[in-house]
From TrEMBL:
Entry-linked PANTHER family: ARCHAEAL-TYPE GLUTAMATE SYNTHASE [NADPH] (PTHR43819)
Domain Glutamate synthase intervals: 162-476
Species name: Thalassospira povalilytica
Alphabetized UniProt keyword annotations: Membrane, Transmembrane, Transmembrane helix
Family of this protein: Belongs to the glutamate synthase family.
Name of the featured protein: FMN-binding glutamate synthase family protein
Transmembrane regions: 12-30
Length: 558
């Protein structure tokens, strides 16, 4: 008995072997139909024998046949959790409530909620808009902001909500076509992502933000370096309204990428200007510049080559001193970007190392607040527009982001939900179940561009309508008038603060003033360490490090 208890893990394979023998005997003695179970059990027995001899999985050696159940259940775990176990508020990374809101607005069906909020309004981190007893009624929801600084010849009136960067290659041709057609119908912009402009972008006819990344796709020489001639040709396309230089992205800042040769189709190769049969590498850093001044000169050159279209850059904030170095380069060269897009580390991507996705880069709200105030401190905020991206899918998300300093918002996954994304999180496998993040021709057929483009346009329209309603409720006539004081933030379970205190606007020009503001000592210290000539630090501040509030408290005590 002890022997059987100790070796019960082999019960399944032993049973299968016995059933195979019994089925063969019955097939010869009773009825030939027994060959059916004999074949089935025989195949299972072969699987078990293979499990016993393979060396890759220890669990299969100890539990032949039965251990496969574990792998099957593990493969369905995300779907089981999403459909059966998660609550409406579990964010992995978007809650069912958030996804449902996008689906409803994209389909044009009822998006109201009965019986009150399901949010814990007394939980730390909860925030809300302060409404007015004299609300406004807004009829024109075509909210726009003009992008184009003093050196721009062709400014662009940008919608307050646009499609963020998603490349052809990461997304299917049908998905790109549906997004761009939706942007055309809804009158908003579609960022190409670093994969350049494909025939699906051109066929859609919508406004494009052409992204230039470290691989210079659509504007590269054969050796991968930047080509002025090819860039000028691409940027001259009348569909291209703005040019975005990508320094980093939120989900994997400081990390390059590679598209294996096996995944490169003729269409991808044509769009990117790369050869077939070779791995496509996106370096982690640009080769066209290496200093803050070099970055500004490159931006100035891109603006000239594009015929004066708005040119800016996108980044996720890392070393804050480095961004201040870029600002010093603006002041020294007199060249300013027309816009800066702040991407939060909560942003999405088709694939990123777990450490990068979870632990590298600054979240959007903190990054946006820093960029906004750094530009204010240098007296440049009125010359440069700011876009922001990072899990922005509702009217409240947009309103709060505008209040923190953004001029417009971008979203990638929100518009993917509008296409029908079910958050299967299989973007990197080429097996997207709804045909969005795949190059599999059969899977792509599931996504019909005509119908899905209507959903994209409808989602944008209904979100702008909701933004108008929430703006009017705050007593405002334009969402660009939202300020931090229109929001309250709960910091503790029994304490909340004004948005001005949580995300203050710092004084204009304070970084350039002769006298240092004591409460902003750490800003002045970081500004002093920044250099327009290099991204490297002039000196490293060794501890102990004390915040300005702590210093002020010590002085008051003395």
């Amino acid at each position: 008995m002890k022997f059987f208890i100790l070796n019960q893990r082999y019960f399944v394979i032993t049973s299968v072997a016995l059933l195979t023998v019994i089925s063969v005997i019955c097939a010869g003695v009773i009825d030939s139909w027994f060959w059916v179970p004999a074949v089935v059990f025989g195949l299972l027995l072969l699987v078990g024998i293979h499990d016993l001899h393979q060396t890759k999985h220890s669990i299969l050696r100890n539990y032949p046949i039965s251990a496969h159940i574990r792998f099957i259940l593990e493969s369905f775990r995300p779907e089981i959790r999403q459909y059966l176990l998660e609550s409406d508020q579990d964010e992995i990374p978007f809650s069912r409530q958030a996804r449902g809101l996008v689906y409803q607005r994209a389909k044009g069906v009822e998006d109201k909620r009965p019986f009150g909020t399901i949010e814990d309004v007394y939980k730390s981190g909860y925030s809300w808009i302060t409404h007015s007893v004299a609300p406004k009624h807004i009829t024109d929801t075509n909210f726009r902001v003009r992008v184009g600084g003093p050196h721009c010849k062709k400014p662009y009136d940008c919608s307050l909500y646009n499609i963020s960067a998603m490349s052809f290659g990461a997304l299917s041709g049908n998905a790109i076509l549906a997004l761009n057609k939706g942007a055309k119908k809804g009158g908003f912009a579609h960022d190409t992502g670093e994969g350049s402009i494909s025939r699906y972008h051109r066929e859609g006819g919508g406004d494009l933000i052409y992204q230039v990344a470290s691989g210079y796709f659509g504007a590269r020489n054969e050796d991968g370096t930047f080509s002025e001639e090819k860039f000028a040709e691409t940027a001259a396309d009348p569909q291209v309204k703005m040019i975005e230089l990508k320094l980093s992205q939120g989900a994997k800042p400081g990390h390059g990428g590679m598209l294996p040769a096996a995944k490169i189709t003729k269409e991808i190769a044509d769009a990117r200007g790369i050869p077939m049969g070779q791995d496509c590498v996106s370096p982690s850093a640009h080769s066209a510049f290496s200093t803050p001044i070099g970055l500004m000169e490159f931006i100035g050159r891109l603006r000239d080559l594009s015929g004066g279209k708005p040119v800016g850059f996108k980044l996720c904030i890392g070393h804050r001193r480095e961004f201040m170095s870029i600002i010093k380069a603006m002041l020294e060269t007199g060249i300013t970007p027309d816009f800066i897009v702040v991407d939060g580390k909560e942003g999405g991507t088709g694939a990123a190392p777990v450490e990068f996705a979870n632990r590298v880069g600054m979240p959007m709200q903190e990054g946006l607040t820093f960029v906004h105030n750094a530009l204010r401190g240098a007296g440049l905020r009125d010359q440069i527009k700011i876009g922001a991206a990072g899990k922005i899918i509702s009217a409240f998300d947009i309103a709060r982001t505008l209040a923190l300093g953004a001029d417009w918002c971008n979203a990638a996954r929100g518009f993917m939900f509008a296409l029908g994304c079910i958050q299967a999180q299989s973007c990197h496998t080429n097996c997207c179940p709804v045909g969005i993040a795949t190059q599999d021709k059969i899977r792509q057929r599931a996504l019909e561009p005509g119908d899905k483009s209507e959903r994209v346009a409808r989602f944008h329209k209904n979100t702008m309508h909701a933004l108008a309603e929430i703006t009017g409720a705050a007593g405002l006539t334009d969402p660009r008038n939202f300020m931090p004081y229109h929001f309250m933030v709960r910091q503790k379970d029994n304490e909340f603060i004004d948005g001005n205190e949580a995300y203050p606007y710092l004084p204009e020009g304070f970084l350039l003033a002769d006298k240092e503001i004591e409460e902003l000592h750490e800003w002045h210290s970081r500004w002093g360490r920044a250099s327009a000539d290099t991204f490297a630090p002039k000196e490293i501040p060794f501890g102990p490090y004390k915040r300005a509030k702590a210093i002020a408290g010590e002085k008051a005590a003395q």
